[in-house]
Amino acid sequence: MNSTPHIAATAPAKVELEAGKDYWFCTCGLSATQPFCDGSHKGKGFTPQKFTAEKTGPAWLCQCKQTENAPFCDGAHKALIQPEQ
């Protein structure tokens, strides 16, 4: 099992959250529904992170999976090497 998450993207995802609603943040980076979990982690040693939105409105969620403030982006993606297109 790989303990290093896949970098889903090198920019955060802007999402609309609803106060009081529970969400499951993808921690493996393999979900097709980034930044949310779709079950792709199964058998890979990862567990999604449940969080409850504190307020309704936009939020920037991490897709590089390197943030120290999961599920929210902390700018860690800026230190990653950008893959060639």
Q: Describe it for me?
A:
It contains no helices and 4 strands. The chain has strands at residues 13-17, 22-25, 49-52, 57-61. The relative contact order is 0.29. The model has no long low-confidence stretch (mean pLDDT 93).
Task: Give keywords.
85 residues; mainly beta; two-stranded antiparallel sheet; two-stranded antiparallel ribbon
What does the secondary structure layout of this molecule look like, with pairings?
Elements: E1 13-17, E2 22-25, E3 49-52, E4 57-61
The helix/strand class is mainly beta
Q: Which regions contain 5 or more consecutive residues with pLDDT less than 50?
A: none
Distance between the termini: 28 Å
* Number of helical regions: 0
In short:
The protein is an all-beta fold. Helix content is 0%, strand content 21%.
